[in-house]
Amino acid sequence: MSEIAIIGAGAWGTALSIVLGRTGSHCIRLWAFEKEVYKQIARRGINEKFLPGQKIPPCVTPSNDLAEGLAGAGIVVSVMPSQHCRVLFEQMSKHLRDQAIIVSATKGLEEHSFLRMTEVIAQVIEKNGKRVRIGALSGPSFALEAARGDPTAVAIASQDAELARFIQGEFSDASFRVYTNDDLIGVELGGALKNTIAIAAGVCAGLGLGHNSIAGLITRGLAEMTRLVVACGGKAETMAGLAGLGDLVLTCTGGLSRNRNVGFELSRGRKLPEILAGMHGMIAEGVFTTTAALELACKNVVEMPITEQVHAILHRGKDPREAISQLMTRSGKSETLKA
User: Fold this and answer.
1) pLDDT at residue 181 above 70?
2) Residue that finishes a domain, picked among 182, 209, 237
3) Residue among 127, 194, 235, 271 flagged as catalytic
4) Cα dist. 44→41, 69, 70 in Å?
5) Rounded to the nearest 5°, which phi and psi values hold at 154?
6) What are phi and psi of 125, to 5 degrees?
7) In which order are the strands placed within the sheet that holds 101-104?
8) What is the C-alpha to C-alpha distance for residues 69 and 61, in angstroms, rounded to an integer?
């Protein structure tokens, strides 16, 4: 029986505890930062704050203490917001088992370093003298749908093929299918960058634009995501898979997408601080990722016009209609060239 620690009891962390707990073959501890969430799960077996109505299996034990949550865990699934990853792993390092497997399930970039989550984790762990094995889990996966057992397909990426195969076997069941992928860069960047495009999709929806607009946005969004992935050392073909196109389509079109909802509300004239305050602790990673993605693109001399306009809407108060107009009136480009 595998001992699994899930660090982060937001919607996705809670959903993963339900997915992994369905077979009853794992011993799972779910660490919650919020004491109210810990108490809800301990008393009722439901995370009413972040994933209401979804029963958490009895094999999942809630915790509000990192040392207790990590004790003896051979697999650690990190599902904290990207901006808390470094601080939490600084606290976690001394409690990690030697050669533990770390599975990052956070879809974001660190805002000031522009690092992917596995890079942040590796940096912190190495500094603290621990040896672990690292992979990343990503793909089109709304928490609610995975928790209730809707068929879901994701990818586990690692340069360690044995790790990827092991996690595939441990995490897969009849409604949660896990594919392996050796492109850690592409899988992580795809999962992060699609959130920015989803904000743009929400803007289009809020302005009442039709299917033509969304289809064009998704296609050109995928093109600029691919350019940056390749420039950073990832594979173009990864962007045609679950962590690229799959997650992009889901997040741009699904009503459960927090990033899409941020864009929708911005298009209606609401201010970003007000929108974020109304999310009641939920995180829209695209708000942070957009800045990091733009800096990463600049560093690698990659043009990302949609990301530029989303950044201007988010952080400079640009009118969404003006942003769309500027995208549509850019100089002519070839679809098949890097433009």
Assistant:
1) yes
2) 182
3) 194
4) 5, 19, 22
5) -135, 175
6) -65, -45
7) 60-63, 26-31, 2-7, 75-78, 101-104, 133-138, 152-157, 176-181
8) 9
- The verdict on residue 136 lying in a domain is yes
The C-alpha atoms of residue 42 and residue 46 are separated, in whole angstroms, by: 8
Per-residue pLDDT tens for 234-258?
Answer: 999 999 999 999 999 999 999 999 9
The DSSP code for 237 is G
Helices (H), the chain: 11-21, 35-44, 66-70, 85-92, 117-127, 143-147, 161-171, 184-206, 211-231, 247-253, 258-267, 272-277, 286-299, 305-316, 320-328
Nearest in space to 157 (alpha carbons), one of 136, 173, 171 = 136
DSSP 23-41: SS-EEEEEE-SSHHHHHHH
Q: Rg of the chain over CA atoms, in angstroms?
A: 19
Distance in angstroms (rounded) separating the CA atoms of residues 18 and 28 = 10
Distance of CA 285 to the CA centre of its chain: 7
Told to judge if 235 belongs to the known catalytic residues of this protein, a careful annotator would answer no
Range of the domain at 107: 2-182
Alpha-carbon gap, residue 104 to 337, rounded angstroms: 33
Q: What is the pLDDT of residue 280?
A: 83
Shared-domain flag, residues 137 and 270: no
**CATH code of the domain in which 69 resides:** 3.40.50.720
Mean pLDDT of 231-235: 98
Q: What's the average model confidence in pLDDT over 334-339?
A: 71
Tell me if 195 sits within 8 A of 293, measured CB to CB: no
Last residue of a domain, one of 150, 182, 214: 182
Tell me how many domains the chain contains: 2
- CA gap 307, 267 in Å, rounded: 16
Model confidence over 35-44: pLDDT tens digits?
A: 999 999 999 9
Are 216 and 159 in the same domain? no
Write out the DSSP string of 151-193. -EEEEEE-S-HHHHHHHHHHH-BTTEEEEEES-HHHHHHHHHH
